[in-house]
Amino acid sequence: MIKQTKHAKISATLPLSLLVKVDNLVKKSEYPNRSALIEIALIQMLRAQMDAKIEAEAAKLNTQAEIAEAEEGMQDYSDIVGQGGTF
């Protein structure tokens, strides 16, 4: 679920083929509107990037203390993004 926050109106240029796919998803009621679909997609992309960075750093860990610290950081991360993974 998307938290209610202030939003800014922007303009974006997309390939027509992509816009057709977006509109088809909205028509199928999978998303309420274009803005919601784009917002959700951006949140998922940003979360995936954050997860990849965390995983890359975790792969470098080699001591139990570092692993414990990373797990604590993951808890902080969960507190920030919430259980649903949204900002």
TrEMBL record:
Residues 10-46 form the Ribbon-helix-helix protein CopG domain. It comes from the Bacteria. GO terms for biological process: regulation of DNA-templated transcription. SUPFAM superfamilies: Ribbon-helix-helix (SSF47598). Pfam families: RHH_1. This is Ribbon-helix-helix protein CopG domain-containing protein. It comes from Candidatus Thiomargarita nelsonii.
